[in-house]
Task: structure prediction
Amino acid sequence: MGLICSAIAAYYLTAIPGFGYAGVAISVFILEITSLLWNALIIQKRCKGAFPVMTLLAYLIFLASIGFLNVPFENFLLYIGIESGTMQSLGSMLFFIGCIALFLLLQFWEGEALEGIAN
Result:
C-alpha cells in the first residue's frame, strides 16, 4: 500500500515544474508514513491496546511544541540583551534539555501513578 501511494504521489508531484526534488521527497515521506500507519493499525487490531493513540498523540504534540517554542525563546534572549551567538546556542540547548527533562519527569510521575493504581 505504501509503494502504491508513493508511486502515485511521485508520478504527479514530480511532473509539476520546479517541484521535482520536493515531489520525490514528499513521495518518500508518503511511503514511510503509509507503511507506518498500516503496520500500527494491524498491530492495534491484533494486540488490543498496543498503541494508546491518544497518549502517543499527546506526547507528539508536547515534543513538537518544543521546536516551535524555541524561536520565541531565542527572541526573548535577544530582548533581554543576550546577543552573543554562543550564549544564544547555550540558552537554546538548556531550554531543550529542560523541556526534555520535564517530559521525562512527567513520564516518571505517570508511571508511578499507574503502579499505585495497579497495587
